[in-house]
Specification:
- Helices cover 30% and strands 17% of the residues.
- The protein has 322 residues and is an alpha/beta fold.
- It has a single domain (12-320), classed as TIM Barrel.
- Strand 7 and strand 8 form a beta hairpin.
- The two termini are 24 Å apart.
- The protein binds S-adenosylmethionine and iron/sulfur cluster (SF4).
- The site of iron/sulfur cluster has 13 residues, from helix 10.
Length: 322
């Protein structure tokens, strides 16, 4: 079992397989970065897998593939198959913007993927264009339908921003409810790479909007997830992820690995250690040492939850995978 310096059990690894993305979301990567990490600096899937095996052997049992846009990386289905074949019972999931999903959904399912999160911030073509920088909505919705058709479990991620998509919150909720797809509203996390002056809805504001149409009550949250959970009278559930809340980090169970091999203990902070040398020389012991060192230094909490409302992370979400 892996424990961090505060005694929290860590069993969840998020793996960003690329920082590149075909969208330019306002809250994440509004402009193409000055330079991408050169392809030769990226770890191969075999190298990432070597570290993942070390993690699994030490107690990781939940793995999420993310990015940038993970579906941009060729051979992703084979990567998922490698992980899935290594140990039965692993919880392997993927987070995607959905744009390329319809063509690959069946291959992902065949490779052993069971669950997928698709980001859907709006149901309006022009708002989708405004948020992501291009006409994306039709293909995203096709991706969602195809993934449902092939039997992948789907959750929707939605970041409500004031003056952008927040007034549509109930429509997106209704779209998900009709399809029995859970939705997670994510409070916008301020970061230096996002477009300036974005303001997200906070958890209370989200609940107030939902309460104008539905009766719901808070239910016990799943200990493996940071989302507050709410249930309607008919049993449909939605969640809110609120990193600005004081207790958000109390049960943090996750670490993050980037495509160039940086192991990151907290989404907010810059601190990281590289596993590159260890995996490229096949030194499993050294990789396990880096893992333990990173856990030892995992911060107690992010700074979004501090009383200072102006805390902004310098970390790029597209690098760390959200
Ligand atoms: N490209 C994929 C996607 O968009 O789903 C995966 C990577 S993206 C970084 C992972 C998640 O982080 C998405 O659900 C996205 O909405 C969320 N995200 C990105 N920037 C965010 C921010 N500043 N605040 C809150 N959530 C953010
Ligand atoms: Fe790309 Fe996802 Fe970031 Fe949007 S949120 S720019 S889709 S990585």
């Amino acid at each position: 079992m892996l424990l961090d310096g505060y005694g929290r059990k860590v069993n969840y690894l998020r793996v960003s397989v690329t920082e590149r993305c075909n969208f330019r979301c306002q809250y994440c990567m509004p402009e193409k970065p000055f330079s991408w990490v050169p392809k030769e600096n990226l770890l191969s899937f075999e190298e990432l897998f070597l570290f993942i095996k070390v993690g699994i052997d030490e107690g990781i049992d939940k793995i999420r593939i993310t990015g940038g846009e993970p579906l941009l990386r060729k051979g992703l289905d084979q990567f998922i198959r490698m992980i899935n074949d290594y140990k039965s019972g692993l919880d392997i999931a993927l987070t995607t913007n959905g744009y390329l999903l319809s063509d690959i959904a069946q291959d992902l399912k065949d490779a052993g993927l069971k669950r997928i999160n698709v980001s859907l911030d709006t149901l309006k073509d022009d708002v989708a264009h405004k948020i992501s920088g291009k006409d994306v909505l039709k293909k995203v919705k096709e991706g969602i339908e195809k993934a449902r058709e092939v039997g992948l479990g789907i959750k929707i991620n939605n970041v409500p921003l004031k003056g952008v998509n927040a007034e549509e919150l109930l429509d997106v909720l209704e779209y998900c409810k009709q399809r029995d797809m859970p939705i997670r509203f994510i409070e916008y996390m301020e970061n230096q790479h996002a477009k300036e002056k974005l303001v997200g809805l906070n958890s209370n504001e989200i609940q107030e909007i939902v309460a104008t149409k539905y009766n719901f009550q808070e239910v016990k949250r799943d200990t493996a997830s940071p989302a507050q959970m709410f249930e309607f009278e008919d049993g449909y559930r939605f969640g809110i992820i609120s990193p600005h809340k004081h207790d958000f980090c109390e049960d943090c169970n996750r670490i993050r690995l980037t495509a160039e091999g940086l192991l990151i203990p907290c989404l907010y902070f810059e601190e990281a250690m590289s596993i590159k040398k260890a995996v490229q020389s096949g030194d499993i012991g050294a990789a396990a040492e880096v893992l333990k060192e990173v856990l030892k230094n995992k911060p107690e909490k992010n700074k979004w939850s501090s009383d200072d409302n102006n805390e902004t992370s310098s970390r790029a979400f597209y690098e760390t995978g959200g």
